[in-house]
């Protein structure tokens, strides 16, 4: 490149660079230039008619009844769609199998249940109705001249209607979750509260051997309430202090199977809680009621993960539920002393972790060489051909009515391979009474295990998972925090 060319480039380049810079600045300024503001125009005020229409549409959207529910109540004979207007929208939605609160929504079924509840009801006996809702059953009970009536309603939105419709006496209606007594008891265990006592205040107290203190009706959806009943007897507290009571409960076939199964029902149904329940309570199957006569409707989702028997019981529960009468056994303490209730609960809990646990190796873990006493015991080794199985002639998975309690029911042909799952509840009780009467029992590791598990025993049959206590997270957390503070 010649010197003249280089000289010309040196003169042209600065001018070119200056022109490029100026062009770029112009483009950027044009891009970021603010747009002129659009003048604000005041919107015309809505007319009163338009506001009312908007409010009505919002209300209609909030109180919309699910289509399948409305269609069933409108098209099914004996159903009254006007009843649906008396329920909050949240209750009309579909619910899962873990729902604890249901409401009766059919007058014919209400009349049938009222006939059962008032049959042989003494005039002075308290009748408790849980979750009356719009009061269809309450109306039927009052028509049958029930004088001593108490209502426990979970949803406060029903309170005004119930008081206005039936002119109830003072304190006859209480707002509280009676089916959730297990939850209140759990919270009381953290902060020594009196939630359960407050809920049960005013209910008459009687001794265990006397007549039942009150009659109760409720619809339950989970086993938690029944586990609480068992726990109150085991710990001899709360409901136990009221004496014996009579309950008429509506439940699904699956839930009934959990409390009324026989040893032939399989591991999923015949568990330690089943054995304890059948020893503590008498139960009787009274009949079936249509499940769609109760709100909210349950969904049977997720049944693919369950075994065939479970799936069948859930599918059966989609159409009909069971009405069951449950009463604590009057002669319970003739066969199981009150001081041994907690030990018996521990005995069942320890050995029914698996139904296939063999009896002799399990008991020899606590008292070495005790198996010989069982094998040599003539009560166990005898072969009885005349002995009739009390569960014969019933469904293979359910006892429709309790069998009499016995603590002298020995297993036939007992040997080292006999498993806990082969025992009936009465045979478990017989084995337990023999176990605790051995001289080595009080010095055995079993007593140490009971003491180490004492805290868990206090929650026997009502243990809570994280999702189970999610209904009241704030209160549970406050109770836990207070307990931690007291401990520190």
Automatic annotation (TrEMBL):
Gene3D superfamilies on file: Vaccinia Virus protein VP39
Alphabetical list of Pfam families matching this protein: RrnaAD
Residue ranges with Basic and acidic residues bias: 475-488
CC terms in the record's Gene Ontology section: mitochondrial matrix
Biological process according to GO: transcription initiation at mitochondrial promoter
Compositional bias ranges of the Acidic residues kind: 465-474
Span list, region Disordered: 452-488
Residues where S-adenosyl-L-methionine binds: 104, 153, 177
Compartments, as annotated in UniProt: Mitochondrion
UniProt keyword list: Methyltransferase, Mitochondrion, RNA-binding, rRNA processing, S-adenosyl-L-methionine, Transcription, Transcription regulation, Transferase, Transit peptide
EC nos: 2.1.1.-
GO MF term set: mitochondrial transcription factor activity; RNA binding; rRNA (adenine-N6,N6-)-dimethyltransferase activity
UniProt cross-references to PANTHER family, sorted A to Z: DIMETHYLADENOSINE TRANSFERASE, DIMETHYLADENOSINE TRANSFERASE 2, MITOCHONDRIAL
UniProt similarity note: Belongs to the class I-like SAM-binding methyltransferase superfamily. rRNA adenine N(6)-methyltransferase family.
Protein name: rRNA adenine N(6)-methyltransferase
